[in-house]
Design brief:
The chain is α/β, with parallel strands linked by helices. Helix content is 45%, strand content 21%.
């Protein structure tokens, strides 16, 4: 377990979170007195101790802990944001600390030090247990000495193969101290490792020495035994004493596995991206071919269908006068041909929705008024009324939005109540977000358009079905249609990066609502194809 001692909770919390992320069990204390009580009750492998605290400061706490036999194997790391002079660092080591760090603390360095010290603590505990056992059985188990020697050798191996190369450099750039790990990359403790030719840091290091600041760089070092280069993270920080540069302290952290994994990932991402681009190209080609096929098939189907309708009309007019039963069957055939023709036209219209088209500013008032001219005859015949609100100007593909409104108005007239004149209202308002129920906003970036009627309505439990191609809620014999109109409307709204939905109850009319951006990101661009 790790103990963090600091009189300020805001200093404890980030350290605690960092260590817990690395699966350390962490305890905390807000004063030196509280820390001593916890050390008496619990075993800690590492204590991270703040130097400046009211009451007992960090040095006094460390001196007190040194007298506890239970904490004899516990390592103490001092932290200080102010006391960074040599005399305080020396005092920290004298008080029993194994390290003295200044704030802000590098999280990676702190975690690495805690991991190393905890591993050392655990091995010390194992070694102490072994020594106690050997002390009791020394007269009867002579072979225990070999076991102890082996354990000591293992411990020395661990200490000599720590994953970091640590060193200090004098202000003039000469090496002062290196650890044993240094010799894996250098011929001697007085020479620097060999850098990769492409990682020449001399110029950068010279500039850093001229104006001493922290120096961090990824480099490749040549391993002595294998002559292979491995990636390391070089980090060097200046140490000041009384305002004078005393030395540089640096580390080389082996990051070769991470770099290899990153390079492999980049290769896989590049390969996958290439595959996706190829698939997209194939998909675009297939989509183009499908559009061509749909147009050709629709055209070829409509030609014989027109002949069927023409010949049926000729037979009805010229050869079946007075034959009521035959005329009835022929009329059914003519109506079926008409439905087939309508279905082919709708399928062709649906397939053409994926053709790219450009956005342009559109006055919805002009568009609706022009559209209603096409409904003059049916509006007059059904005595229908249409109310149009103040509609804004927004960026659209005019032909597509006209198609949406045409289908909604056509449905409102088609699904009217018997003996009740249809009434249709078209209104719009600006809203502040892309949502069907978003609140109105005078400066909104989206426009909500509502087409409402007083027709037969529908049950909202079938809402998801009405926008699916070929889905119908009513019997074909009662109401004409192919089941494609609302699917076309939804696909057109999707092309405009919008939303469409509806609100209705049986026999209470319907409200079709669609939301569109007032301005497309770039009206000159071609919208995404579906």
């Amino acid at each position: 377990m790790i103990l963090i001692v600091d009189d300020r909770p805001e200093n404890i919390l980030p350290l605690k979170k960092i260590l817990e992320l690395h699966r350390f069990a962490v305890d905390t204390a807000l004063s030196g007195e509280d820390a001593l009580k916890k050390v008496l009750k619990n075993a800690y492998s590492v204590i991270i101790l703040d130097v400046q605290m009211p009451g007992m400061d960090g040095f006094e706490v460390a001196n007190a802990i040194a007298g506890f036999s239970k904490a004899r194997d516990t390592s103490i790391i001092f932290l200080s944001a102010v006391n960074t002079e040599k005399k305080f660092i020396t005092k920290g080591y004298t008080a029993g600390g194994v390290d003295y760090l200044t704030k802000p603390v590098d999280p990676d360095i702190l975690v690495l030090k805690v991991k190393t010290l905890r591993r050392l603590y655990e091995q010390q505990q194992e070694l102490r247990a072994t020594q106690d056992s050997l002390q009791k059985e020394i007269d009867v188990r002579k072979q225990a000495q070999a076991v102890l020697a082996e354990r000591m050798q293992e411990l020395q191996t661990v200490l000599s193969s720590l994953p970091q190369m640590a060193f200090t450099v004098a202000p003039n750039g000469q090496l002062e101290y290196v650890n044993e790990h240094w010799l894996q990359y250098a011929e001697s403790k007085t020479e620097f490792p060999v850098f990769h030719p492409d990682d020449d840091i001399c110029e950068d290091w010279t500039q850093t020495m001229a104006s001493p600041t922290e120096f961090t760089r990824e480099v490749r070092l040549k391993e002595v035994q294998s002559d292979l280069f491995r990636y390391h993270l070089l980090r060097i920080i200046p140490i000041w004493q009384a305002g004078v540069l005393a030395r540089w302290i640096g580390t080389f952290t082996d990051i070769h596995p991470q770099k290899q994994a990153a390079e492999l990932l980049e290769q896989q991402v590049a390969l996958r991206t290439s595959e996706l681009q190829l698939k997209n190209a194939e998909l675009e080609q297939t989509n183009h071919e499908l559009q061509q096929f749909t147009w050709v098939v629709s055209h070829d189907l409509k030609e014989p269908l027109r002949k069927i309708q023409l010949f049926n009309d000729i037979v009805k007019q010229e050869f079946l006068k007075g034959n009521t039963e035959a005329i009835t069957y022929l009329d059914r055939s003519i109506r079926s041909s008409a439905r087939m023709s309508s279905l082919i036209n709708d399928v062709l219209a649906y397939s053409q929705l994926s053709v790219p088209e450009a956005f342009q500013p559109t006055d919805l008032n002009d568009l609706v008024n022009e559209l209603l001219l096409d409904f003059d005859e049916v509006l007059s015949r059904t005595k229908a009324t249409v109310t149009i609100g103040d509609l804004p100007m927004i960026d659209t593909i005019p032909a597509r939005i006209r198609q949406v409104l045409q289908n909604l108005i056509s449905n409102a007239l088609k699904f009217a109540k018997n003996d009740v004149p249809p009434h249709i209202s078209i209104s719009a308002e600006l809203i502040d977000s892309k949502a069907i129920d978003a609140p109105p906003s005078p400066d909104g970036t989206y426009c909500r358009i509502v087409v409402q009627d007083n027709g037969i309505g529908f049950d909202e439990q079938f809402l998801d079905r009405i926008f699916v191609i070929f889905q119908r809620l009513h019997n074909r014999t009662a109401y004409e249609g192919t089941g494609i109109g609302l699917a076309i409307a939804r696909k057109n709204i999707d092309k405009h990066h919008g939303l469409i939905s509806a609100r209705s109850r049986p026999n209470e009319g319907s409200r079709f609502i669609f939301v569109l951006p007032v301005r497309q990101n770039n009206p000159a661009l071609i919208p995404e194809t579906l």
